[in-house]
């Protein structure tokens, strides 16, 4: 997605699907309702997404770019491994 300048803006476990039960299942994303086209050096300021998975800059209305999705992936991994939210 990021190669096409698309930011999902609402990554959370419910939007990450595994395509098969193989040892290495294919990961697919769903629910692109908040997705935006954002260039590498562009920023958005609108608050969209699920609060528990949003980057701090979004919650503070500071502007965000592709890094929003990377933060959300980090929270998903943290929750998957620990069973609790990081904050």
From TrEMBL:
Residues 1-87 form the Protein kinase domain. It comes from the Eukaryota. One of its GO terms (molecular function) is ATP binding. The keyword rRNA processing does not apply. One of its GO terms (biological process) is intracellular signal transduction. One of its GO terms (cellular component) is cytosol. Gene3D superfamilies: Transferase(Phosphotransferase) domain 1. Keywords: Kinase, Transferase. SUPFAM superfamilies: Protein kinase-like (PK-like). This is KPCD3 kinase. The gene is Prkd3.
